[in-house]
Amino acid sequence: MDLTVVAYVIYLLISIALTVWVARTLSRNGRVFIGDVLQGNEKLADAVNQLLVVGFYLVNIGFVTLYLRSGEDILQARDLFEALSVKLGVVLLVLGFMHLGNVWVLNKMRRRGIMERQQTPPAAPQGWTAPVGA
């Protein structure tokens, strides 16, 4: 078997396994965060969490498959490791940036929700008072 094909198989297996692991970790640990952003609406938090996971899979597995092709021939085991290290390094960087982007957006949503809650009075107004001296 050609070493280039071996590199492709190893790259796909590791990249997809990393994507699944990151997605599951983000989903499990991010659910509480999303629940806070959505002010305790558990059903909506679960739905948003699931949609984020699906989008994460689509973007990352799409990138992994687009980045599969190698422009160089892999003739030795050293070439195999070098090609894999570059490809997997790029995949890990993309996964990291995707994670940071998700956290940044959710944090902005959370801050906006906190600001809105702070502007809401604790009790509804019970009456109206005319201005003095009018």
What is the secondary structure topology, with strand pairs?
Layout: H1 3-37, H2 42-66, H3 77-119
Helix pairs in contact: 1-2, 1-3, 2-3
Account of the protein in words:
The protein is mostly helical and 134 residues long. The chain is built from three helices and no strands. Helix 1 (3-37) runs antiparallel to helix 2 (42-66) and helix 1 (3-37) packs parallel to helix 3 (77-119). The chain starts with a helix and ends in a 15-residue tail after the last helix. The model has no long low-confidence stretch (mean pLDDT 84).
What structural category arises from helix and sheet content? Answer: mainly alpha
How many β-strand runs?
0
Secondary structure tally, helices: 3
Largest sheet: none
Give the DSSP E fraction (strand runs of 2 or more residues): under 5%
The rough form would be described as rod-shaped
Order of helices and strands: HHH
The average pLDDT value, as a whole number, equals 84
C-alpha-based Rg, rounded: 24 Å
Distance between the termini: 93 Å
Instruction: Provide the low-confidence segments as ranges.
Output: none
Query: Considering DSSP H and I runs of 4 or more, what fraction of the residues is helical?
Result: over 70%
